[in-house]
Structures are given as structure tokens and as C-alpha cells.
Design a protein that fits this description.
Length: 61
């Protein structure tokens, strides 16, 4: 599935959540989508947990 199709599906889901559930539902769907994206990237091996907790300059102080 191309990234354009995924983006379209996500946009439609956010649109439906915003229309039928209001702003709170929109924010909830967007936050859960972001969490799902990060978990998916972790499971695929594109990200590692250390990437979130490591210092930017990789030096220990």
C-alpha cells in the first residue's frame, strides 16, 4: 500500500472522527494513530527504543 493511500485513509478517519465526535474525538484518533505508527515502526525494525532515550550528541556526562 502506497504512502498516499495510507495518508488518505488516515485523513478520512480523522475527518469522520472530527465530524461525528467533535474535537475531542479528533485529538484522540490522531494521538492513537501516532502511537500506532511508532509501534509499527518499532515492530518493523525501523526504530529502536534507544533512539528515544539517547542523548543527541551521544556523549555521557
Amino acid at each position: 500500500m502506497s504512502m498516499a493511500v495510507v495518508g488518505m485513509i488516515v485523513g478520512m478517519a480523522l475527518g469522520f472522527a472530527g465530524y461525528f465526535g467533535g474535537f475531542g474525538a479528533f485529538v484522540l484518533v490522531a494521538a492513537l494513530g501516532a502511537v500506532g505508527f511508532v509501534v509499527g515502526r518499532l515492530l518493523e525494525g525501523d526504530l529502536e527504543l534507544g533512539d528515544f532515550f539517547r542523548a543527541r550528541d551521544d556523549r555521557r556526562r
